[in-house]
Amino acid sequence: MFLPILQVNSEDLPGLAIVCGDPRRAEVIARKLDNVRELSFAREYRTFVGEFSGTRLAVVSHGVGSPGAAVCFEELIRGGVGTLIRVGTAGSYSAEHPAGSLIISTAAIRAEGLTRQLVPEGFPAVADSAVTEALYEAALQGGGIVKKGLTVTLDVFFSGVVDIPHKTYKAAGALAVEMEIAALYVVASLRGARAGAILALDGYADADLAAEYDPHSDEVANAVEREIDAALRAAVKLASH
Ligand code: R1X
């Protein structure tokens, strides 16, 4: 089957994919694979396949925001991918896990518009437990601050005149905020795939903590490196389960 938006043949896809927003980050991850091959680079969707420790996997970029990312997740699942791991970045809600820490998202608060057009109110955006545990275990091995818990998925990055209830989300236990996980978890649940996500924190989303946003610091680069390595180790474990 030809996947028209990713512009990839499903026959070329393995059963597991690591997905990330940035096409350049997809290339960074792909460089860690053996026998790597770039299948396509269409719009924001860049697809590589290769092997890590003998496990075949794809690395695919999904761009910024839930609607575009959902297109990528849908086509991958239609193409036979049964396990999806998002490797991303997020803004922190707490000084207990500052920039440079890692978060494993167990579920996402659906504060975006896309999933409302897919499923009814009350439908959970929840990770697969095996993917979550594999990511958590692999992330702990890599050191640094690692937490798992709720994350928020928003559509907005630069705020307008509407108040986003960050304090409420934080009071309700959310650890961090990003822009694609709700789409990933809802699409995966709907289509019978399993999904999880690991996030490198690149600053604060809480206005009381926020300093100048600098996602290009060494501590963030180090956390991104650790999350990529953790996702690859988790992928190997999940491929045999
Ligand atoms: O998920 C968020 C979005 O893809 C995190 O980083 C991007 C915005 O910079």
UniProtKB/TrEMBL annotation:
Mind listing the GO biological process terms from this record? uridine catabolic process
Stored InterPro entries:
Nucleoside_phosphorylase_d, Nucleoside_phosphorylase_sf
User: The organism sits in which domain of life?
Assistant: Bacteria
Top EC class for this record? transferase
What the entry lists under Pfam families is as follows: PNP_UDP_1 (PF01048)
Query: What EC number(s) does the entry state?
Result: 2.4.2.3
Q: What GO cellular component is one of the record's annotations? A: cytosol
Please give the catalytic activity noted in the UniProt record: uridine + phosphate = alpha-D-ribose 1-phosphate + uracil
Sample GO molecular function, one term: uridine phosphorylase activity
The UniProt record lists the Nucleoside phosphorylase domain at 16-234
Check the record and name the PANTHER family matching this protein: FI09636P-RELATED (PTHR43691:SF11), URIDINE PHOSPHORYLASE (PTHR43691)
* Identification of the protein by name: Uridine phosphorylase
